[in-house]
Amino acid sequence: MNKPIVGITMGDPAGSGPEITIKALADPEQYTYCRPIVVGDVKVFEQARKFVGREDIVIHRCDKVSDALFTPGTIDVLHLDLIEDINKFEMAKVSVEGGNAAFQCVKKVIELAMAGEVDATCTNALNKEAMNKALEYYHGEKSDGYTHFDGHTEIYATYTHTKKYTMMLAHHDLRVVHVSTHVSLREACDRVKKERVLEVIEIANKACKDMGIENPRIAVAGLNPHCGENGLFGREEIEEITPAIEAAKAEGITGVVGPCPPDSVFSQAIGGWYDIVVCMYHDQGHIPLKTVGFVYDREKQEWKAVEGVNVTLGLPIIRASVDHGTDFYHAGKGNGNELSLVNAIKYAVKMTGREA
């Protein structure tokens, strides 16, 4: 019973989250290294098991975590009554009801983790448009003081009262963290400041050590082509990034190097040069991760693999997530790929330090 309890959110019920959750937890292997409990609406999962052709799986309604059985062949669902009429709920469409359901599941799993009832959290995808429409519809301008969230990361930061945090994406040994994420490219350039770059280096260093890497090798990517060519293409490397690296070294983070040219640093990281790469903005980190993690089969014209894990660092609780969207295209068809969710659950367990 020392296996960690992992709370898994339903995600937007109009997407493939519930279906890939059924597929992931239908495999008894997941129960060998953790005790999973899903936070969502039982009605959604009763429907999802039909979509994926696994009506043999038992959906066990729980009113509290202690009700869970944690038995292969049975999926424990901490029930939140979120969908009024499952027969009228439309799949693969943005809706206020779906957005609210996804948001409420995230809030609940954060509460459970903060209370110590689950050891780690794992999130399925939500639709940002649906969620923010729901916040506006249900709560107006006084939704706990927040009327807009850019995504899971900001929800977690808000409800855990965390000021210093960053997103990490991982595909096997390739890991990237970000100085900024969900902002315009123009604003992202303005956010490359010494204090923030140093902060992300520090968070990256701690995350690697928490995962058992004794002496992390941290590459810091440049912002400009060729790292600015000594100021010819921009001065951010000279004025902000290099000073942050030097400050990190002064703190004792000896494994940090850079600025490294962004067009080659990821190939080097895949080759084992580095344990983690500090990226300056969203796409700088996301593109290489999804290039290696998302594999499309030309002949079969379908996704052969959709791998990758999204982890929020700097929080007082553990949060890992799938590295893909709500996947409306596959929703209701039963053919969504569960591999990213399985990887996310395993990563969450890894971060508890209680790997099987």
TrEMBL record:
The keyword Oxidoreductase applies. It comes from the Bacteria. Its EC number is 1.1.1.262. Its cofactor is a divalent metal cation. Keywords: Metal-binding, NAD, Oxidoreductase. Pfam families: PdxA. GO terms for molecular function: 4-hydroxythreonine-4-phosphate dehydrogenase activity; metal ion binding; NAD binding. NCBIfam families: pdxA (TIGR00557). Homodimer. This is 4-hydroxythreonine-4-phosphate dehydrogenase PdxA. It comes from Faecalibacterium prausnitzii. The lineage of its organism: Bacteria, Bacillati, Bacillota, Clostridia, Eubacteriales. The gene is pdxA.
